[in-house]
Amino acid sequence: MTATTDEMTPRLGLTTSGNSADRPVVAIIGGGFTGAALAYHLAGSLPASAARIIVYEPRATLGAGLAYGTDDPVHRINVPAARMTLVPGDDEHFQRWLLETGALADDPQATTADGHVFARRSAFGQYVSAQLQPFIAAGRIEHRRIRVEAATPAWSGGWHIDADDGSRLTADLMVLATTHPSPTAPAVLDRPLAGHPRYIADATVAGALSKIRPQDRVLVLGAGLTAADVIAALDAAEHQGPITAVSRRGLRSRGHNLAPQDPFGEFVVPPARTARALLRRVRSTLAEAKVVGVTWHAVFDRLRAQGGDIWRALSTIERRRVVRFLRPYWDVHRFRIAPQVEGAIDRRLAAATLTFYAASVREVARAVENDEISVTFRPRHGRGTFEDRYDAVIVTTGPDHRSILSSQPLVAQLATVGLLQADPVGLGIAVDENSRVIRADGGIAETLYVAGPLARGTFGELMGLPQVTEHAVFVAERIALTVRAAQSRVGRATGIL
Questions:
Q1: How much is the pTM?
Q2: pLDDT tens, 139-187?
C-alpha cells in the first residue's frame, strides 16, 4: 500500500526551534558520508528560507566519517572512481573532481594499467566535503562539532537535543545518520588477551597497526574488506612475518573484472519468496552466465541493482535466513577489493607469507614470559583441532550490529525509553517504508528518521555507496515534502497563502 501525502508528513508546529515560525529546524545526527549526503540533497531541494539544516559531527569536516576519514594511503575506494558519486545519475562526478582539482597528483598508483582510477579513500572524503562547502559558507548547512548525548520529545512533536557541551537545540525533525557499531571481539580472544600489547580488538582505530613489529607472526580474525586493508597496510609498512587470516567459512573478498559487462540475470520477476529459492536462482543464473561467457561479477551487479525489490519480497523469517546463511557469500562477492589491495594479497600469497584458513577459534592462551599467543582452532571441514602460535592478533570481523542499541549514547538513550527499537532482522533500527522510526510500542515516530545503513532491516542493501546515496536522497525528499506541507498549512492558517 502506498502512503498518502498526509500520512508521510507530520503536522509540524514550526515554532519549536525558537526561530522564525516559517523556518523549521532539521537536525542530522552524524556527519559521515550518510549525514553529509542527506544534508547536501536536502539543502539542494529546499530554498534557503525553508529550513535550518544542522549537522552534529565531532570531526572537523563533514563527509569523511570512519570510512573516508582514514589517512592511510593504502586504504582505497573499492570500486572505480567513475562509479563513485554524491550525485545519482552523474556517475563520473567524483572522477571529474579528481581531475579538475589535481587530487591524484601525489598518488601515482591510483590509476591501473587499463586506465581505471581507484583513489585513496581520503580523496573521496575530501570530495564530499568540497561539495558541501558552498552550502556551509552560505549558512544553508550548519556544522556543530559536538556529540549528541540525548534527545527527548518536545511538546509540539519535535525534539529537544542535548549535546556533550551542555547546549540544547529544539528541532522539528531529527535524523539518525550515525555510524556502524564497532566490532565486538569474541570472548574467547578478549578475555585472555586483554592488555596484550599487540592485541588489536578494532583495526579501524587510527594507528592501530603501529604496534605490529616487522617480524611478528600475525593472526587476522576475519577475511573481508577490513582484513584485506590490514594485510595491504602491513605489506606497505614492510612487515615480513607470516600472516594467517582465519574466518569460519574461509571466504575472502574478491577482486574486480574491469572488462565492460552489463548486469546479468533477473531476480525480481517472478520474486523469490524464500532464501532457498533465491539461492537456487542465483546458482542457476551463475551457470547460465558461465555458458555465455559472462563472469559472476555481472550476476552480482544485477543482484545489487535489484536488491531492494528482492528484500521486499521476503518475509521477516526469510530475511533472517538470508542474513544468517547467505550474507557471508554475498559480502565477499558484492564488496570487492581494489586492484592495488588485491596485488598486495597476491604477492603475500605467492611469497608464502599469507595463509587463509576456514576455521573457528576454540581456545587462546598467553605466555607470561614473552607474550606469545597460542591459539587452538577447529577446522570447518574435518575433525579434531590444530594449534598455532602468534605474536599479534588483529580482529577484523566487522561491525557488531547486534549491539546497535548500546553502541552510542543517543541510540541507547532513545531505546531505553522505548522511542526506538532494533529491527526484527537484527541489522539496525526498525523503520517504516518512509524510513521513520518505529517505536517499541509499534507506533511511528513521525519526526524521527533513520538514514543510511542502519535502516537496511527494512530497505535491504544499504551498505554500498550507491545505495546509501540513493537512500539519502529518498529521506531528503521525504523531509522536504514534510517541510513544504507544514509551511503550506502555516500559510493557509495565517492568510499568507
A1: 0.90
A2: 999 999 999 999 999 988 999 999 999 999 999 999 999 877 777 788 8
